[in-house]
Amino acid sequence: MIVLGLTGSIGMGKSTTAQMFRDAGVPVHDSDETVHRLYAGRAMPLIAEAFPQAVIDDVVDRTRLGAAVLNNPAELKRLEAIIHPLVRAESEAFLQKNREAGTAVVVLDIPLLFETGGEGRVDKIVVVTAPAEVQQERVLARAGMSPEKFEAILAKQVPDEDKRRRADFVIDTGQGLQPARRAVDEILSSIRGSAEA
């Protein structure tokens, strides 16, 4: 089974690209979606204990949690120590299930693949990219986003240029949906071709 790691900086079109892999019949494990689910389930009591101000009526308030950790490296580490092992366990279960099913290719959608040293968990890395002005426009259009918050998030991420240099495949989502979809198909053809060779 070939494990593709899908990553890219904020606003680069990773979620849309992950959906293109799903549309092509490839199972995708989405780390962000897993985090959302964990916040609503197993992680909630742990977060309530560590960050009581961020949990209201047994619901994690992501805005309050973000405010608690955004410019505070020690608190961010504390949150990551709760969340990362749980996400990792879920992704390992996903890989095991697909191995047993004889799946040929799977995708691990990991926003912070390089930042968390996740390269060793995947066979090939796909980086999604877009021109900086397209990225900025996409991110600032999000609810609750400010230029300052965007800069703070970017400062914690490996620069796009470095990610592209370390990738096996690069998909430029700034060209529109069709070229990105073609790139996904080409990646899958190339991987399946090399697996059969």
From TrEMBL:
Keywords: ATP-binding, Coenzyme A biosynthesis, Cytoplasm, Kinase, Nucleotide-binding, Transferase. Catalyzes the phosphorylation of the 3'-hydroxyl group of dephosphocoenzyme A to form coenzyme A. It catalyses: 3'-dephospho-CoA + ATP = ADP + CoA + H(+). Its EC number is 2.7.1.24. One of its GO terms (molecular function) is dephospho-CoA kinase activity. GO terms for cellular component: cytoplasm. Gene3D superfamilies: P-loop containing nucleotide triphosphate hydrolases (3.40.50.300). Pathway: Cofactor biosynthesis; coenzyme A biosynthesis; CoA from (R)-pantothenate: step 5/5. It comes from Tianweitania sediminis. Pfam families: CoaE. Belongs to the CoaE family. SUPFAM superfamilies: P-loop containing nucleoside triphosphate hydrolases. ATP binds at G11, M12, G13, K14, S15, T16. It is an enzyme of class 2 (transferase). Its main location: cytoplasm. This is Dephospho-CoA kinase. GO terms for biological process: coenzyme A biosynthetic process. It is found in: Cytoplasm.
